[in-house]
Amino acid sequence: MDEDTVPVRVRQVIAAAEVSQREFARRIVMDPSKLSRSLSGARRFTVAELSRIAATAGVDAGWLLGTSGETRRSRGQGATDPAPGGRPAQIVRETVELIARRGFHSVRVADIAEACHTSTAAIHYHFPGRDELLEAAVRWCMDEDTARRDTRIAEAADALEELRQLIEMQTPYTERQRVQWSVWLDLWAEAARSTAVGGLHVEYYRQWRTTVADVLRRGMAQGVFRPVEPERAALRLTALIDGLASQVLATAPGGPGTSALDMHNALLSYVDETLTLPGRTA
Fold it and tell me: How much is the pLDDT for 3?
């Protein structure tokens, strides 16, 4: 492996993708800080990381390593990679589905391979260890959630509408939302046992509360929210969202208990009673 060539060629791949470095890290399911350090030469890319870069970008792994002059993969290579995102993305998506249905500790690499219609060797090629794969699945969920939040906020007319959009996104109305919440609930338990997953948990909630606090600041500046301490208000609101969501997940759709609509209405009422100025309602 040519240690000087690899970062240069990965930078070329990122430039060709015409996305930010953070977005590229999301696509290859890699910690953005690790990608940054690897590009600067402060750490080496692992073989698994390079395989994910090659599979996602459609380039020859040998070219990344400086051992081949062929930039693109041949027609035979990766021809069966599922779109979008190639095999690594499929592996992570299937892992997320399995975690939601079975929980972290019940998901085996063999189960993931079966869901992807491939071999365990192929799974290990992209993700050498089970723990790395499970952490990648958590990061994938985090990044997908962050991307959706950013998109919804950008479409809102003002901060009050932004907060409405965030609440709607966090309410598990759909099966997709219930799957994601199931992963989060399992993440909470796993975070208490795993330093690595716990670190991801802390990172996610820091980002999530910061997003809510920033919306509240904009709302105060726009005159739609009461004067509050944004960080404390964000902590209370996100804690309420978590608690209500856990009740919804414990209730079968259509069954007795807390429904998604109950959760949504309770959150809007809380916003009206504690955050919005008189005359403005969520």
Answer: 54
Indicate which CATH number applies to the domain containing 233: 1.10.357.10
Q: Whole-angstrom Cα distance, residue 99 to residue 90?
A: 14
Q: Examine the domain organization and report whether 161 and 249 are in the same domain.
A: yes
Looking up residue 113, the CATH number of its domain turns out to be: 1.10.10.60
Instruction: Quote the number of domains for the chain.
Output: 3
Could you read off the pLDDT of 42-58 as tens digits, one per residue? 888 887 788 888 888 88
Contact status, residue 250 vs residue 256, Cβ threshold 8 Å:
no
Alpha-carbon gap, residue 274 to 262, rounded angstroms: 18
Q: What digits encode the pLDDT tens for the residues 205-216?
A: 898 999 999 999
CB 282 within 8 A of CB 163: yes
Both tokens of 206, joined, read: 């820091």
> Can you give the residue range of the structural domain that contains 32?
5-65
Report the 10 Å Cβ neighbour count for 98: 21
The percent of the chain in helix, strand and coil, each rounded to the nearest 5, is 70, 0, 30
Enter the tokens of residue 212.
């809510």
Give the span between the Cα atoms of 247 and 94, in whole angstroms.
25
Q: What does the longest C-alpha to C-alpha distance in the chain come to? A: 67
Joined together, the tokens standing for residue 200 give 């991801």
Q: Tell me the pTM.
A: 0.71
Burial of 122 (0-12, 13-18, 19+ CB in 10 A): middle
**Residue 71 banded pLDDT, cuts 50, 70, 90:** low
What token pair was written down for 69? 């002059």
**Residue 33 CB partners (closer than 8 Å, separation 6+):** none
Name residue 225's beta-bridge partners.
Answer: 276
The per-residue pLDDT for range 232-265, each reduced to its tens digit, is: 999 999 999 999 999 999 998 888 999 999 999 9
Q: Phi and psi for 72 in degrees, rounded to 5?
A: -85, 155
